[in-house]
């Protein structure tokens, strides 16, 4: 059966589209080969191999979309965003803001198609209606309704890039978590540039939101946006931001939280004096000392390495759970752990000696 364009639905030959436009490769960012991964945020990601950055493509769009309205968005993005990607102060003019917000949404939707066919058949990804709705707004050059976007600065590994989409629920006190997500957060990092957005997909449940980092709102907006403004996002704070952790509803007691079915691992358990947690592969468990959980409850967090038969992991403790910060070969995880700033401690318990680093406050 012929495949159809993810945006317009036309049936016919499909073309390859870069997740990041080819212009990004010409900005001057480091193009040294690196490992790339894609997949669910609460499972072991799909290893896409080692290759230069910004080469990833998806074959999901027709030539008319690819070379038409999608290409036009890339033209605006190249002109407006290149200085910011390179950490040069700049301004996003009012007349460009709708196009940049639409580019963020288009890029996030495109990146979701890097997943495997099996993952999408199992429910991973965004609804096809999101793609169709954005296509229908191509002449307006505006993001989808009930969307907000912010722009900020990222400080981390030079030339780092990432796209992350996290399903969100709108939580009301004394009500259980809804069975399905009601929106999603979008986060794009390109060099020094951070773009963050939220889209509410359930009518009547949208909330006016702001970000705790004080980043200026890109859309909707009534004035030009200076860059950089607000608190810089670091590698340490990026994951919480991408999970919607810095988004706050401006009225009432409504909260935005990641949809636990897609964002969290199953419940941890106390076993033989240690905390047992399912690994990202969903095939094995990993263990860490209960003392680290007690420390987390007191506001002191740690990083540690561990592994299962499928992968090695770099893990940070947090106030409510542990966070898998990286997965991969043991040598690479060990190098990332060694680069972390913090005093190292050895904990002796039922599972033997356990090395960890106390993370700076």
Describe this structure in words.
- The protein is α+β, with helices and mostly antiparallel strands.
- It has 2 domains: about 15-260, no CATH class; about 270-360, no CATH class.
- It is about 25% helix and about 35% strand.
- The strands form 7 sheets. Strands 6, 7, 8, 9, 11, 13 and 15 form a 7-stranded mixed beta sheet that branches.
- A hairpin with a 2-residue loop joins strand 22 (about 345-350) and strand 23 (about 350-360).
- The chain is globular and about 65 Å long.
- The mean pLDDT is about 90.
Multimeric status of the protein: single chain
The N- and C-terminal alpha carbons lie at a distance of 56 Å
Mean pLDDT: 88
Class from secondary-structure proportions? alpha+beta
**Number of DSSP strands?**
23
- Uncertain residue ranges: none
Number of continuous helical runs: 9
Characterize the overall form.
globular
| Tally of distinct domains | 2
Which percent bin holds the helix content?
A: 10-25%
Largest sheet: 7 strands, mixed
Strand content: 25-35%
Gyration radius, in Å = 21 Å
Q: Which descriptors would you attach to this protein?
A:
361 residues, alpha+beta, seven-stranded mixed beta sheet, 9 helices
Short overview:
24% of the residues lie in helices and 34% in strands.
């Amino acid at each position: 059966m012929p495949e159809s364009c993810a945006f317009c639905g036309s049936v016919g030959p499909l073309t390859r589209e870069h997740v990041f436009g080819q212009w990004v490769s010409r900005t001057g960012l480091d193009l040294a080969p690196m490992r790339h991964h894609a997949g669910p945020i609460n499972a072991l990601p799909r290893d896409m191999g080692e290759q230069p950055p910004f080469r990833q493509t998806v074959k999901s769009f027709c030539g008319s979309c690819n070379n038409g309205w999608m290409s036009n968005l890339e033209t605006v993005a190249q002109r407006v965003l290149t200085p910011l990607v390179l950490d040069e102060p700049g301004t996003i003019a009012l007349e460009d803001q709708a196009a940049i917000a639409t580019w963020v949404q288009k890029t996030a939707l495109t990146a979701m198609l890097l997943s495997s066919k099996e993952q999408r058949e199992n429910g991973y990804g965004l609804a096809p209606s999101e793609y169709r709705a954005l296509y229908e707004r191509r002449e307006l050059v505006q993001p989808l309704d009930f969307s907000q976007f912010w722009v900020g600065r990222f400080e981390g590994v030079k030339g780092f890039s990432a796209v992350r989409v996290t399903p969100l629920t709108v939580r009301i006190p004394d009500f259980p978590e809804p069975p399905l997500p009601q929106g999603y957060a979008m986060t794009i990092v390109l060099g020094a540039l951070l773009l963050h957005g939220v889209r509410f997909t359930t009518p009547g449940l949208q909330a006016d939101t702001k970000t705790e980092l004080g980043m200026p709102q890109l859309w909707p907006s009534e004035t030009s946006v200076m860059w950089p403004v607000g608190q810089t996002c670091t590698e340490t704070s990026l994951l919480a931001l991408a999970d919607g952790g810095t988004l706050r509803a401006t009225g009432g007691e409504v909260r935005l939280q990641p949809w636990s079915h897609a964002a969290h691992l199953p419940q941890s358990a106390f076993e033989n004096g240690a905390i047992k947690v399912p690994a990202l592969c969903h095939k094995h468990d990993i263990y860490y000392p209960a003392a680290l959980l007690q420390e987390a409850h007191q506001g002191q967090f740690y990083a540690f390495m561990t592994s299962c038969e499928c992968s090695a992991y770099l893990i940070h403790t947090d106030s409510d759970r542990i966070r898998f910060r990286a997965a991969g070969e043991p040598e690479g995880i060990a190098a990332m752990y060694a680069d972390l700033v913090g005093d190292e401690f050895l904990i002796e318990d039922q599972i033997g000696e356990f090395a960890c680093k106390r993370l700076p406050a």
